[in-house]
């Protein structure tokens, strides 16, 4: 999943309410630039996201990513009670999406509900530095949601992909090609590429680069190797490409790692 590998994501929450809908409650049709993460506690509602209808009920998690066209109304006979979080990822990451579908069933656990109620208390009381505390609680909510999602997803990963992930993790410094990996698991390279993306959320090349860059960061933090030596030991022959990719993924150049590690 793409989000797993973005350690610098910071959610900036600008709207949170305990929404106890009246019978005529609606959200007018509009394109949103923020992310809408809504926990339905009671009742029912219909959401229309990018022209597709979704009926939601108690226990459902609604996720509407930025850039979506959103519209909604509750059921008059059974008004919705929900806790919506509207937030942006701090620049420049607002295009990163959570891995959930528009509606996910059975995601609201007792633990998560406890975090939501704690968040509500902090958000409403607005004590000094409440935004820091609120963000921390929201990140705990995200962590629990993502951990549960990852655990469910890992059980569904094709065993051939699990085998290749282990191999890539151990052999990342070698000149790996998807054709060679396809031979190891006796699959067509094109089909393997598709299966790999479906299973991990990344292409083979994106995954390999991520493993290499993460290892390069650890090597540079230890201070035993130069940037050039690190690049070569992590499978990069082009130092310029390595430096540009490192900065794109980490947000700072490889030459800055040692200074950051020393604080």
UniProtKB/TrEMBL annotation:
Membrane in keyword set: no
Keywords: DNA-binding, Transcription, Transcription regulation
Transmembrane segments: none
Domain HTH araC/xylS-type: 162-260
One Pfam family hit: HTH_18
Name of the protein described by the UniProt record: Helix-turn-helix transcriptional regulator
Organism in which the protein naturally occurs: Paenibacillus terricola
UniProt lineage: Bacteria, Bacillati, Bacillota, Bacilli, Bacillales
């Amino acid at each position: 999943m793409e989000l797993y590998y973005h350690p610098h994501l910071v959610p900036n929450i600008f709207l949170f309410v305990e929404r106890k809908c009246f019978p005529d409650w609606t959200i007018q049709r509009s394109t949103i630039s923020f992310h809408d993460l809504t926990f339905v506690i009671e009742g029912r509602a219909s959401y229309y996201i990018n022209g597709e209808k979704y009926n939601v009920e108690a226990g459902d998690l609604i996720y509407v990513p930025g850039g979506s066209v959103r519209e909604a109304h509750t059921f008059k006979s059974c008004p919705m009670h929900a806790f919506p979080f509207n937030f942006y990822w701090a620049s420049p990451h607002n295009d990163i999406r959570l891995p959930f579908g528009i509606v996910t069933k059975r995601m609201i656990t007792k633990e998560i509900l406890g975090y939501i109620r704690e968040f509500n208390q902090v958000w409403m009381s607005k004590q000094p530095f409440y935004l820091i505390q609120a963000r921390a609680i929201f990140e705990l909510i995200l962590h629990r949601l993502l951990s549960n999602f990852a655990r469910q997803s890992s059980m569904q990963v094709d065993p051939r992909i699990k085998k290749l992930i282990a191999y890539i993790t151990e052999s990342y410094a070698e000149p790996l090609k998807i054709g060679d990996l396809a031979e190891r698991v006796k699959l067509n390279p094109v089909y393997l590429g598709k299966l790999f993306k479906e299973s991990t959320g990344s292409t083979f090349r994106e995954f390999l680069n991520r493993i290499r860059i993460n290892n390069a960061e650890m090597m540079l933090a230890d201070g035993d190797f130069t940037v050039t030596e690190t690049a070569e030991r992590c499978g990069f022959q082009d130092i310029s490409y390595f430096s540009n990719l490192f900065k794109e993924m980490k947000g700072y150049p490889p030459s800055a790692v040692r200074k950051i590690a020393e604080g």
